[in-house]
Amino acid sequence: MARPAHPAITIDDMEQNRIAGGSFNHEAHVYLAWLYLGQYPVTEAIDRFTSALKRLTLKLGVPGKYHETISWFFMLIIAQRRKGKARQDWAAFKAENDDLLRREDNVLSRYYSKETLATDAARCSFVLPDRLVA
Q1: Domain that holds residue 23
Q2: Which of 18, 84, 105, 111: disulfide with 129, CB 3.0–4.6 Å?
Q3: Residue 133 lies inside a defined structural domain of this protein
Q4: Does any domain span residue 132?
């Protein structure tokens, strides 16, 4: 039997705060966003994911790690890239979208400057990108 494409984290685990901090890395964030967007319309997926993420960071004692602009941006980009690929599995999505998973030089850095992302406004509410993308 093939190994799962990602550790078995589910939407239910996220919403019930059953995710350990050590297992919740950047890829897990992207994976869960991908799951939410496969199950719910975009606006509902964003609302549910960000609400669950805020609860989880509070439970883990790191509420300051939550970043509204980054969360919304990734949800919107993932939603755009999922369009027309409803049957695509996580492994295929991941292979086609490595720029979502890289820590450096990822999709976020093409749209936002570090200065904009460091603002309180960007941390607390969604801020539009400040970079032009060619």
Answers
A1: 11-124
A2: 111
A3: no
A4: no
In-domain check, residue 36: yes
With 0-12 CB in 10 A as exposed, 13-18 as middle and 19+ as buried, what is 43? exposed
- The mean pLDDT of the chain is 90
In the structure, how many helices (H) and strands (E) does the chain have? 8, 0
Q: How many domains does the chain have?
A: 1
Contacts for 49-58: CB closer than 8 Å, 24+ residues apart: 49/14, 49/75, 50/75, 52/14, 52/15, 52/17, 53/14, 53/29, 55/17, 56/14, 56/17, 56/19, 56/24
Is residue 84 assigned to a domain?
yes
Q: On the CB side of 78, how many CA atoms lie within 13 Å of its CA?
A: 32
pLDDT one-digit tens code per residue, 78-93: 999 999 887 889 999 9
